[in-house]
Specification:
The chain is an alpha/beta fold and 73 residues long. It contains three helices and three strands, in the order βαβαβα. Strands 1-2-3 form a three-stranded parallel β-sheet, with helices on one face. The protein is globular.
């Protein structure tokens, strides 16, 4: 991977349903791996932060928001 920064805002699909979460889970795994390799990773948006919590990766990325855009309005 040649990127030095990854900014992710929004899950890849309906991650709340097991049959549709593969894209989001794969993206999360890739972001965690990138973080381990020194890439700056930023996860933004309430739904994406919820993915972090669901997959137990909140402490495995560089930074994750805690407030959704809807809540900030």
């Amino acid at each position: 991977m040649s990127s030095k920064t990854i900014i992710w805002n929004g899950p890849m699909g309906v991650f709340e349903m097991a049959s549709f979460e593969n894209g989001t889970k794969s993206m999360m795994d890739a972001v965690v791996e990138a973080t381990t390799n020194g890439v700056v990773t930023v996860i933004g948006g309430g739904d994406t932060a919820t993915c972090c919590k669901k997959y137990g990766t909140e402490d495995k990325v560089r930074w994750a928001t805690r407030v959704s855009a809807r809540a900030a309005c």
